[in-house]
Write a structure and sequence with these properties.
Blueprint (H helix, E strand, L loop, with lengths): L11 H4 L7 H8 L11 H4 L4 H6 L8 H19 L17
Length: 99
């Protein structure tokens, strides 16, 4: 994405990105860790190929965008317990917006 002047990156506002949510401001205001996640859209989200099916024979290939979203919703708590959890508060302090 290219940036012109002091405005937001071009394309990010029209298409949506983590930059739209002001995560750093939210983290400072509420003293929280903010986790954002990306997921595949379009052909990349629904791509079905034999090579991809070999990686996940039980679930088949396709609809990887939804799989990305499910992993993102489950992931912050697991990541928290492995890295930050022993030193800080509960993973329940994380916001979990829907996609």
């Amino acid at each position: 994405m290219s940036v012109t002047g002091d405005g937001p990156p071009r394309g990010a506002v029209r298409r949506g990105s983590a930059a739209n949510h002001g995560a750093s401001r939210l983290a400072r205001a509420d003293d929280r860790v903010v986790v954002t996640a990306n997921y595949r859209l379009g052909a990349y989200g629904y791509l079905a190929r034999l090579g991809l099916t070999a990686e996940a024979p039980d679930s088949g290939s396709g609809d990887y965008g939804l799989t990305d979203q499910q992993a993102a919703r489950a992931g912050p708590g697991q990541m928290w317990r492995r890295s930050v959890g022993p030193r800080r508060t509960s993973p329940r302090a994380a916001y979990r917006p829907t996609a």
